[in-house]
TrEMBL record:
GO cellular component: cytosol
Keyword field: ATP-binding, Glutamine amidotransferase, GMP biosynthesis, Ligase, Nucleotide-binding, Purine biosynthesis
EC top class named in words: ligase
Domain of life from the UniProt record: Bacteria
Originating gene: guaA
Pathway given in the UniProt record: Purine metabolism; GMP biosynthesis; GMP from XMP (L-Gln route): step 1/1
Residue ranges occupied by any GMPS ATP-PPase domain in the UniProt entry: 202-394
Protein name: GMP synthase [glutamine-hydrolyzing]
Source organism per UniProt: Ruegeria faecimaris
Gene3D superfamilies, sorted: 3.30.300.10, 3.40.50.880, HUPs
Length: 519
């Protein structure tokens, strides 16, 4: 999807779990970049794309293994700056005449400290207070640097932690500058793109224009059904697609019986009041709750919901002449947690209903204009599109809804209890002015009854857990530090006002090791 008007950077993906973070760091610098799996990067491809700089990502393979991934040798002759990271460093050294070895006790995982060895342009702003913390994750190591290269930084287990051939503007580092735990990593990217001559011309405005063109090209004169939940992602997707193809769009809001209190009315009302887009309100709660009856395994529940969503979309598509496409507000974290990206090594954590939970065979083709964005970028795009703050500021709500906040078997009784408790919790958060400080907050009803005493009588009711987290992109999260007063007041309200709950706990697990949802 190469576009012509912006400076371009090519990221060659060797399958690292954090390749997308490289793109993120670059987008923060308003640099346009594209990630392409190494298999697709031929000399011809590079010539056509004409990138102004190239980055080689990390990856799980070992350069020492015969048949392991390589870059086309000609890439070193096109005369643009190249940055190699971890596997990317190793492949660069190997292909340019250096040596990489496995083993010998030189593995490093996690925090490491690099000591400088001389001045280097991409390290401008580094080492101001001595050694610099970086994040390492490697078993192999470079044992001999390629001709023309020099060492600019060492760590205890990586004598070649930072290497460069400044005359050709080739840089190769063993650590991962894209992750949070390399605190000066963003600065390294900034220096790199500056010396490569990027003007920082890539903005959400530019993304919007590019996506509109892409959607028009993909859809042609066909019709599109868009799964609209009222969440930030699908709202932004719908508005963007509407801008691209106008009347060829029909939104379908599915009430699967797993929504929060009053949600269906609010979403449909909010959308109809603000936008002139065709919207179908599909009440399918009997279908979903019927199929979920008796199911307690989280992945099974997710897959059932994913399939039913598609069945419902298909049913409505069948009533519209020329409806060939299904649009969804899928984001990059949905993808990375569900499936392995471009042949990479990422493990399936949970099958997000809109990606890993999709049925294998589908009649509709997907339109997913946000598939490579993170949540905060989608919010920025939403602002760019002029969406009201009431859409943009909403906490995320997962497609499977209350199903994954009701661990184990779902019953209508539990869902009703959960809806009431959740409404009180969110009301408390709003009343205390905390809604916008929190990334996401909800109640989970636990599959356990506990004994209580209320009004001198014995109770034997459900326990619930309150969850509230801070996060930037949903990939990592921390629990929100409520005051004890807030927690006490909220627990009292829930237990007093909701029949069926007699115990309330606060979940203080971060992500990782927990996930945000309970299933
Ligand atoms: N109730 C629903 N009706 C129709 N489509 C839905 C529904 N719930 C989810 N979807 C589809 O699945 C996609 C993924 O859901 P997800 O919850 O991640 O995104 P969202 O609801 O758009 O935004 P948010 O993350 O803010 O909740 C949505 O973008 C939408 O296309
Ligand atoms: O649309 C969705 N379909 C899903 O199947 C799904 N599972 C989790 N989530 C949301 O994703 C973010 C990260 O969630 P986890 O830490 O629980 O994986 C959080 O914001 C979750 O609410 C989902 N969203
Ligand atoms: N994170 C990486 O890129 C690892 C590179 C290579 N697989 C190693 O273990 O050294
Ligand atoms: Mg949602």
């Amino acid at each position: 999807m190469t576009q012509d008007t912006h400076d371009r950077l090519l990221i060659i993906d060797f399958g690292s779990q954090v390749t997308q973070l490289i793109a993120r760091r670059l987008r923060e610098l308003n640099v346009y970049c594209e990630i392409h799996p190494y298999q697709n990067v031929t000399t011809d491809f590079v010539r056509k794309m004409a990138p102004k700089a190239v980055i080689f990502s990390g990856g799980p393979d070992s350069v020492t293994r015969e048949g392991s991934p390589r870059v086309p040798q000609e890439i070193f002759d096109i005369g643009v700056p190249i940055l190699g990271i971890c596997y990317g460093q190793q492949v660069m050294m190997h292909q340019l005449g250096g040596k990489v070895e496995s083993g010998h006790g030189t593995a490093e995982f996690g925090r490491a400290f690099v000591t400088p060895k001389g001045q280097l342009d991409i390290l401008d702003g580094w080492f101001t207070d001595g050694d610099e913390q970086v994040w390492m994750s490697h078993g192999d190591h470079v044992s001999e640097i390629a001709p023309g290269f020099q060492v600019y930084g060492t760590s205890p287990n990586a004598p070649f932690a930072i290497t460069a051939d400044t005359s050709r503007h080739f840089y190769a580092v063993q650590f991962h500058p894209e992750v949070h735990h390399t605190p000066k990593g963003a600065k390294l990217y900034e220096n790199f793109v500056k010396l490569a001559g990027f003007s920082g011309d890539w903005t959400m405005g530019a993304y919007r224009e590019q996506m509109i063109a892409t959607i028009r090209e993909q859809v042609g004169d066909k019709q599109v059904i868009c799964g609209l939940s009222g969440g930030v992602d699908s709202s932004v997707a719908a508005i963007l697609i509407h801008e691209a193809i106008g009347d060829q769009l029909t939104c379908v809001f599915v009430d699967h019986g797993l929504l929060r209190k009053n949600e269906a009315d609010e979403v449909v009302g909010m959308f109809r009041d603000n936008y002139n887009i065709r919207l179908i309100h599909a009440d399918e709660s009997d279908l979903f709750l019927g199929e979920l009856e008796g199911q307690s395994d989280p992945e099974t529940k997710r897959k059932i919901i994913g399939k039913l969503f598609i069945d419902v979309f298909q049913k409505h598509a069948d009533t519209i002449d020329g409806a060939e496409f299904l649009a969804q507000g899928t984001l990059y974290p949905d993808v990375i947690e569900s499936v392995s990206f471009s042949g990479g090594p990422s493990v399936t954590i949970k099958s997000h209903h809109n990606v890993g939970g999709l049925p294998e065979k589908m009649g509709l083709k997907l339109v997913e204009p946000l598939r490579e964005l993170f949540k905060d970028e989608v919010r920025a795009l939403g602002r760019e599109l002029g969406l009201p703050q009431s859409f943009i500021g909403r906490h995320p709500f997962p497609g499977p809804g209350l199903a994954i906040r009701c661990p184990g078997e779902i019953t209508r009784e539990k869902l009703d209890i959960l809806r009431e408790a959740d409404a009180i919790y969110i009301d408390q958060i709003r009343k205390h002015g905390l809604y916008d400080d929190i990334w996401q907050a909800f109640v989970a009803i636990l599959p356990v009854r506990t004994v209580g005493v209320m009004g001198d009588g014995r109770t034997y009711d459900y326990a619930c857990a309150l969850r509230a987290v801070t996060s930037v992109d949903g990939m990592t999260a921390d629990y929100y530090p409520f005051s004890h007063e807030f927690l006490g007041e909220t627990a009292t309200r829930i237990i007093n006002e909701v029949k069926g709950i007699n115990r309330c706990t606060y979940d203080i697990t971060s992500k990782p090791p927990g996930t945000i949802e309970w299933e």
